[in-house]
Amino acid sequence: MRFISPTIEGIEDFAAEEISRLGGKIERIEKGFVIYTGPDELFARINYFGKMVERVGIIIGEGEIKKESNLEKVIQCDTCEGKKINVKIEMKKAKFRKKELENEARKLGNGEVEIRLFLWLDGERVIGAIDTTGEGLHNRGYRVFKHPASLNPILAAAMLKISGWKNEFVDPFCGSGTILIEGYHQFKGIGNRFRKFPNWEKYREIRDMRNKEEPEILGVEKEKKYVEGAILNAKKAEAEVKIIEGDAQLLSKYYSGNYIITNPPFGLRMGNKKNVFTLYENFAKEMEENFEGSYLTMIIPHTKFENYFRIEEKREIKYGKLKSYIYKFKI
Ligand SMILES: C[S@@+](CC[C@H](N)C(=O)[O-])C[C@H]1O[C@@H](n2cnc3c(N)ncnc32)[C@H](O)[C@@H]1O
């Protein structure tokens, strides 16, 4: 079978690596997508263990169309027989009328039971895939508390990978605990079992690959309400992590390890830019004075930290509409 998984632009190589590790054979990587082949049951494994992909689709057609009515020539959907097509269309540089494409796609089915068909269009090129995921995998199902600036867990997973952490790290601006929880699940080999999948029975056979050791993961957060929220999320996610109220500018009071992995305030959604730059300066000073030789991995839309530390890795990421960077610095 051929599959397609969309992911965040900038981490496609990580998504491909994860898919290979889970048993997929990579056919090609495109901006925001990985296309691969594998046995039929691969989609269940990737939905369950995939931390770097947004969904898994079974490809049912790929080709070029000149007009909307060409769709049926490109998409061959045996599984659509007797089904009702719920179509989702994403277009890049494509000039087609969405409504007409939807009408064409709906003609592929003729029943009551709904299946979701994704159409990704780039110019005249179209890829059609039957969705196996439902709600995107960034929704891990453990977020009982919602932080106003919470990080997409897929990016948290990518940051953890870049950081090179082994069994300990701190997130000094931990908010609702996304990086902490992702880290714990990554260490223990815990799959996406806090969410409900459609056709859940397909996933029953899959068990978490539990690591018996425990990591040491610490979160520091200035706002009490977020500390409480992070504790609730960690509890729901069965993540044994420590979360304390504190100030990132005084991090050495609480932490003396080597891996700092964080998503500081951007000064865009919360607070203002001037205050945030003062905070960055103070935080950088704390790093310089007390964490020499450690690694700081962060996601941030500003380049200011490049003035302070040596860059080990820098990636440009499309974070929603915002251009952002994941950095790994050596302090
Ligand atoms: C972008 S949010 C982090 C969101 C988090 N990654 C999540 O997914 O929920 C940044 C957090 O830093 C906290 N913060 C701001 N200044 C701080 C400081 N000096 N020390 C610790 N936390 C601080 C804010 O309250 C906010 O919760």
Summarize the structure.
With 331 residues, this protein is an alpha/beta fold.
Number of domains: 2
Average pLDDT number: 93
Q: Spell out the helices and strands N to C.
A: EHEEHEHEHEEHEHEHEEHEEE
Total count of helical runs of at least 4 residues: 8
- Report, as a whole number of angstroms, the end-to-end distance: 46 Å
Helix/strand structural class: alpha/beta
Strand order of the largest sheet: 2-3-1-4-7-6-5
CATH superfamily of the largest domain: Vaccinia Virus protein VP39
- The strand count comes to 14
**Cα-atom Rg, whole angstroms?**
22 Å
CATH architecture of the largest domain: 3-Layer(aba) Sandwich
How would you sum up the major sheet?
Answer: 7 strands, mixed
Layout of helices and strands, plus pairs?
Layout: E1 2-6, H1 12-21, E2 25-30, E3 33-37, H2 42-49, E4 57-64, H3 71-74, E5 83-92, H4 98-106, E6 113-122, E7 125-131, H5 153-163, E8 168-171, H6 178-188, E9 216-221, H7 224-236, E10 242-245, E11 259-262, H8 273-290, E12 295-300, E13 310-319, E14 322-330
Parallel strand pairs: 5-6, 8-9, 9-10, 11-12
Antiparallel strand pairs: 1-3, 1-4, 2-3, 4-7, 6-7, 12-14, 13-14
Helix pairs in contact: 5-6
Bound molecules: S-adenosylmethionine.
